[in-house]
Protein 1
Amino acid sequence: MKARQDGQATIERLWKPLFAAIDKSRLRRAKTGFKQGEIVQLRFSSGEWLGSVALASGYRRIEQFHLPALGDWRPYASHMAKWLARRPDWYAELLSGVWGGEWLDWLEHAGLPVVPNEQTVHLWRQKAHCTCEDGDPFCRHVLAGFLFIVEEMQASPIDSFRFFGLHVQDFQDSVHQAMHKLWQEQFPDGKIRDGDSVHSSAEILDNVPWENLKSDTPLDFLKTSRRFRLLFENAEPVYLNKK
């Protein structure tokens, strides 16, 4: 998966191969239901996506579906937070509604998918289940769920982390705390002087048994130093849930 154009259309474009393989009439019905607001809820629970769809056809009824989630990021949340602390430009992009190309490349390198591949689609076809009478695992309700997730991921990348098992406010607190820790390590007295920079050798990443995080990456952390200054010079640390 190569670097993509930055922008809110990125996720939709990356999911396009999945929808292109779906029967057009089936997908059209799913889009109609989705646009009419039939998705009542869709949430992550124990590694699965659970969805409820409200239908109004003569009488109102609820269909429910479940399938394996695209990914479970919970075991890696602290490591993700530390990497975003090292790359505040990535974090700023996410907060502004953009899935940046470098962030997407990093997620792929780390083994944290945001786009289904052939293996995922095969698993979904085996495991997806809906209470409707459609025998196809990709019924209109499951497809509407996919459309809902894609729209949410486009509209607010950071909020869509909930679809991967993360509590968004807690995760953002972790990012801010990691940023504050890095700031204290690099500038103990809180002052930036000429010639100072955010060193890529700062020991902020734990020694974790996760090969993708420990392996070499093409990312140049030194280029973040200027952005780091712009974001944090003369600023107090920010916590979302400060008591």
Protein 2
Amino acid sequence: MSKRDSLDFLANSLLDKTLLSNPSITDELLTELAFLPLAIAQAAAYLSRNKLSISRYLHLLRNTDQDLSNLMSAEFLDLTRPRGAPNAIANTWIVSFDQIRLTDQTAVDLLAFVSYIEPKAIPRSILPLVPPEEQLVRAIGTLLGYAFFIERSEDTYDMHRLVQKATKIWLDKHPLEKEEARKKAVEHLAGVFPDAAINYDNMPMCREYLPHALKVAQSAQGEDLASHYTQCQLLGHFFMWDGRFRECIYWLEQAIELFERVVAIESKVLREDDPSRLGSQHQLASAYLEDGRIGEAIKLLAQVDAIRSKVLREDDRSRLASQHELARAYLADGRIGEAIEVFERVVAIESKVLREDHSNRLSSQHALASAYLEDGRIGEAIELFERVAAIRSKVLREDHSDRLVSEHALVSAYLADGRIGEAIKLFAQVVAIESKVLREDVLKGDECNDLREKLDRLAYSPVCKICPRE
């Protein structure tokens, strides 16, 4: 930027124009800032926010932490072109950051969090909540005020890549703060990333959060097992519903690998009937089942069910869930009689304790109907499928995954019963709905079909028969 343009930019950025009353001091400042827009913007933000004279600000710039400044300048060399720019950016960042640390710790924490996500298109809704809300508002205002944040649109922010880089360098010099920020980022993203498998309406927010979630997932380490597992699972669900099967399979397989480590650790430190340990074993067994590792799934689920049956009531949600999954595994293994026996027991108990439109009760009825269909008991299967589909049609949107699953299954049952006309009519409705919510290329091509075959073993699918229960 030319000297004239730099002066105009500084003048337009300052709230108090009287600060420019001394031309020689102003020239000195612009020279110190290497006529660089980012450095000028940060300097102007600091001057306006703290009502400081330019001469005093120059003194602060020239007395920054030289070790940190030199480190940042070296890191910035490949990212900036003008000579002197790295040092100018480093010094303005340090001066502003030191002031923020004195006045607004929430803003410091927010800055640390953002250093782990993408610096562009940051939704306000992805930022960690800080009670009371006014505190978060103040922190965002602080970062905007110091030009660390730039407001892209309402409730969406950008951060200059060099500001993010400077924050990372500062964190590298403060390992305790860095580790705390990293753990919080991994845990937070696992908690806020929406689950596309539960509700397709979550897809727009998933897409908005996706670049940030992928960035955080890359920073996860061994001690973040539970949060990292959840995040991998959620990413897998998103990519599945977006028709990106290769990425879906990658993240779901990552989730299985992580949960095997969780179970191994918990088996060493927790009692065999510890709820957390049993919950982890249950989820790992479900993942095995979706990955086609049926024998391993049955062995682990039978173990979990045996322990839960000793310590929990028959209508306990966790006990019913493990029995539901065990029956699913039996069905996948061709042990249809055993599957039906367990499913019937679960359905009978849930019919006493859950509302008729409760998702767990409907899931179990759907699973039992699938088992009846496999056993050739077509009439009983159709009766149950129709009941589930009717209830889901009342309480779920037409494009909800659970509703589509029910309707697909009912089509199969009608075909098995020779009711071709009804099957064609319902199938046409389902295809019309799916064509709106699934990408056109999702099921095209041999390679995609091969991926879909593996995907059907790995996770929920709009054409799968039975969805897992946790």
Protein 3
Amino acid sequence: MPAAAEKHFRLVLVSSVMEGLSRIERHRKVNEVLGKELRESVHALSIQAFTPDEWEKRQGSTFASPACLGGGKKEGIS
């Protein structure tokens, strides 16, 4: 497991609160709740937020999350 893996998280959320919200609005709701953690201790967060109906249609399947490449270190960004 990479050393920074403990700062990378994947969240799969199923809630009726997501009804009628766009994908970006759903992410903003999650970001509001996790604000402090995102600022202080989380390097990367993959969010998959579904309504109960969407989750049922997907039959519980999720999207694959990409592996961390180290951000700017691999891309030569300082």
Protein 4
Amino acid sequence: MPSTHTHEAMISLRMMAVNPDLLIFVQKSIIIHCVEFCSIM
């Protein structure tokens, strides 16, 4: 059990460290999808 908890902690720490880049990437992809959708409409 302790090994899985340590693994989850490492994953969450890594996600928190990457989180800002992840948010920027998600926002960019959402904007791109909105632009493509609007251009199709």
